[in-house]
Amino acid sequence: MLRIALAFALALSAIAAERPTFTIDKSQPYDATKVRAYGGRHERVHTYIDQHYDEHVAQLQRWIRQRSISAQNDGIREMAAMLRDDLKHLGFQEAEIAETSGHPGVFGFFDAGAAKTLLVYMMYDVQPVESEAWQVPPFAGAIVDHDLGKVLMGRGAVNQKGPERAFLNAVESILATERKLPVNLMILAEGEEELGSPHMPELVAKYEQRLRVANGVLFPFPSQDRSGAVTLNLGVKGIVYFELEAKGGDVGGPVSAEVHGSSKALVDSPTLRLVQAIASMTSRDGNTILVPGYYDSIRPPNAEEQQLYAAMLPAWTEREPLMQKSLDVRRWIEGWKGEQSLLQFLQDTTLNVDGIWSGYTGPGTKTILPHKATAKIDSRLVPNQTPEEALRLIRAHLDANGFADLEIRRLGGYPPAQSSVTSPMIRTAIGVYNKYGMTPAVAPRIAGSAPYYLFTDRLGLPMLAGGVGVGAGAHAPNEYLVLEAKPGSKIAGLKEQEKFFVDLLYALSAP
């Protein structure tokens, strides 16, 4: 009877669950062309960048060649020391490793005696690699011919070491030519972004009073796509990341070790139990979350977001095939297109299995019944979801459906965050893009996650993920950043990336 009741409960959940749909008023799209283009000219600095291209490429390569895989604690402290030493070399009066309960952070301050202070958020850690899938060794910092031009290929090339070191190259170029910076600079870097930033709150708390004097926060970010079009992102989705584990014990299954596979005739399988638990959380196609209440707190697009989406829609629709090509997929879920795919991508939550393992996975055969099974799962969160509420709902769902014995281990998480397009810092950045004829599509958020909430919500600062250039392959093999685009391309190479940062720093210094 219990199994029948559980099956009935799951069937009712499947009937009741409905993925949210969103609509927007397209009558008043946001017009970024109305923001005045930045008019400053900084030819001496730009010329210096042109003349020192090779050295600047070498700086990016040096960072790529230093391993810093946070999940494996591989090269982390060495990379932190490299960043600290680079800040000292640039002339930062303060540059120090900041210890946390986990991987260390780095803090730096350059006092330029300026009226304004820019806080730059950096991450120096990278994702693990599967070397056999790469065209080149992932930590060689190789220059590779690509269909977009010459690219730097390696782990961290685009996420996030390449853009960050390009920013520091721009700082070095200003100092080499003008002897002073237009703004004071604070650097706050963490070594755990790829782990969900579990100790980033400690870093912010350590320097909180000093950080609060900043006028805004920059996250160096290459914001062009393969066509050369720019998207300026105002925020991020949140995330909750956890492990779900099934073990043998009172509910059945071997307790301490695997047993012979023939024992399945009498013995429960923790592996199959985990699979059933995961399957219970989504519809059969995996695309609708069946956890009761999971969609309830999501707010629809507000008035500002609707204006931004309306302005984004034409370019989004045009670029969808390019995005699918870059992801190597042939269709979106249910064939979504245009407005529906845009809103589902940026306005909806997710539930995703990142990895699952149990028992023997080597060559040949080994007939066993494993004693435990584990999965890593993430959920991207949108306004007004929180990690705490998401896990509470998942726990309640598992308990109600006969999976109370499964263990949930939270590995990280934080809420979504974003700034307003009306912020002076955001409008200044749009003006710099307009100077280069790259009027951006302005998006409320990216579909990915970063701990922006610490800056926007805790410190009350506007935050900008900005820059130019193109890269791809974050978290995947053959990650790259374009250094030299092919002739006729609208993609910014490394020189243009650095010049943009120069102009942005000067533009941000204006009263």
Walkthrough of the structure:
This protein has 511 residues and is α/β, with parallel strands linked by helices. Helices cover 34% and strands 21% of the residues. The protein contains 14 helices and 20 strands. It has helices at 2-16, 43-51, 53-65, 76-90, 161-178, 200-206, 208-211, 270-280, 303-327, 338-347, 387-400, 424-435, 453-458, 494-508; strands spanning 94-98, 105-110, 117-123, 142-146, 149-153, 184-190, 216-220, 231-233, 235-247, 259-260, 352-357, 368-369, 372-381, 407-414, 417-418, 441-443, 446-449, 463-466, 471-472, 480-485. The strands form five sheets. It has a six-stranded mixed sheet, sandwiched between helices. Strands 9, 11, 13, 14, 15 and 17 form a six-stranded mixed sheet that branches. Strand 4 and strand 5 (149-153) form a beta hairpin. The termini are far apart. The relative contact order is 0.20. Residues 1-6 have low confidence and may be disordered.
